[in-house]
Amino acid sequence: MVRHPIPVVLALVAGLAFLACCRDLSLGLWRVRDFLSGVLDISLTVDAEIFVSTGFEGDFDDWSDIPLFDDGEIETDLTAAAYSGALFEIDLDFDGIEEKTSLILAEGAAASGNRPIFVAWEGDSYTVDKGVCYLGWAENGDVKLAAARCGQSTGVMYCSMPQNSEDLARCELCPASGACTPCDMDGELDDCLPEKEAGGSIDIDIDIDADIDLDMDADRSAGEP
């Protein structure tokens, strides 16, 4: 049995906690391409049979927890759409962990007959975007994404990508006041997201999964001091 001296273990845990709380961990904005690809995968592969009737009335801002979401970003005319919903678990952002996603299917949207699927989910500590809410959908050859601090009304980040070209993904930041500005796709997600509301709390979530075996009874029974 390999023994783990308690002081060493405590130092390791303390070091991990220090790194997590005292360094600004952030996600590269380029990862948005993965998010958009995940939304596209759902749109192309999810079977309509998993959806059930819902009382959803088209209030995407409330449903996605993105208060300032602009319905004008949706090109498809949803005036005549009938909605159905579903809950789905999938590794949407390709981080190795399945995300709990909420889906809305817009059936019979206008005369086009389009059936766009809208996907809403919240970021997590695995992708260092916990507290960020996303809304994605595919239409007219593009995949689109809106993101904001969950429940906050400081603005929205909008991204789009042609369905056949991840290299052409683009994002812009649209603050609550002021014009939208393009984001640096080689930059960080935090730089493209709306600012946090004044006085908002900082959510520090440290996930430490350590399997430490300190079986002292076994050591004693083996005659170890």
Structure explained in plain terms:
This protein is an alpha+beta fold and 225 residues long. The protein has one domain (27-197). It contains five helices and nine strands; from the N terminus they run ααβαββββββββαα. The protein has a nine-stranded antiparallel beta sheet with strand order 1-2-3-4-5-6-7-8-9. A hairpin with a 5-residue loop joins strand 8 (170-175) and strand 9. The protein starts with 5 loop residues before the first helix and ends with a helix. Mean pLDDT is 80; it is low at 1-23 and 201-225.
Q: Helix/strand/pairing class, anyone?
A: alpha+beta
Shape: globular
Q: Which range does the strand content fall in?
A: 25-35%
Largest sheet: 9 strands, antiparallel
Average pLDDT for all residues: 80
* Total discrete domains: 1
Spatial arrangement of strands, main beta sheet: 1-2-3-4-5-6-7-8-9
Binned, the helix content reads: 10-25%
Ends apart, CA distance between termini: 14 Å
Q: What ranges have pLDDT less than 50 throughout 5 or more consecutive residues?
A: 1-23, 201-225
Gyration radius (Cα, Å) is 22 Å
Task: Provide a compact summary of the structure.
With 225 residues, this protein is α+β, with helices and mostly antiparallel strands. Helices cover 20% and strands 26% of the residues. It has a 9-stranded antiparallel beta sheet with strand order 1-2-3-4-5-6-7-8-9.
Please describe the structure with a list of short key phrases separated by commas or semicolons.
single chain, 225 residues, alpha+beta, 9-stranded antiparallel sheet, 26% strand, globular, disordered N terminus
